[in-house]
Specification:
This protein has nine helices and nine strands. It is of the alpha/beta class. This is VWFA domain-containing protein. Keywords: Signal.
Length: 298
Amino acid sequence: MKKTLKIIVLFLLLVFTFSCKKDSDEEKDEIVTKIPTVENYNISILIDLSDRISLAKNPNPTMEYYQRDLGYIKSVSEAFTQHLRSKRIRQIDDRMQLFFNPEPQDSEINLISKNLKINIDKNNASKEILNSINANYASQTSKIYDSAIKDNNYIGSDIWSFFDDKVKDQCIEKGYRNILVILTDGYMYYDGKIIKEGNRTTYITPKLLKANGLNNKDWEKKLQDHDFGFIKAGSDLSNLEVLVLGINASRNNPYEEKVIKAYWNKWFAEMKIKHFEAKNADLPSNMDKIIKDFILKN
């Protein structure tokens, strides 16, 4: 009888031990499956190096526009590194790069932009590299603006052609969250790319808006009825998000800021860009949260 009882007790212990191990293994599996998939970021920054940053033509005693740009870039860089720090090393595969269009004639600027092309993955991610990104971007982009302002030869910014020819190949990667940050005053003009198709153009200037009568309270109706806007430059950019920073409308037309944003919003919507925002040239301290919320989806 005692022997039988011992066998039963031993059997129950084995069953209990096996059951506990199984439950433990299932809990571990459940924890593993609950680890969220973290997105890989592909962030591109497109800088408008036109005369909007000229200290002589567009001075601003509060804060020069190039300094605002540098502040915005700092916020973008910090959001990028914050995203990297939120991931495990084996999950990291993220990119950040900087563009101009057309490329400046200054070879030093072009070399700097190449050096600002960052690709961080599990093979090269380290504490030292992550700690260096923000300082490197701040110092190198400052050199770009200093050189452009010193050169004082503003050739304009061909943003329209960038979307037409380059954005799909250079700013969109499959399997990534693709974000394009554009630093511009909202106007678009380049001597080498002036196209007009009906009331659609590749450019927008104060002169154009005035000539088309988009400088009064009826601007919205006129824009819709006569189909004013940019010529579409991409058929399907649904895998791209765009944040435009630095809109700075002429003060001669109280409606100009709204018209500029309507042009950009209409353009993005027609190119099937689902997530986009256009923000004014505010102080970097006021824009920091807006930029980081857009990038980090807070």
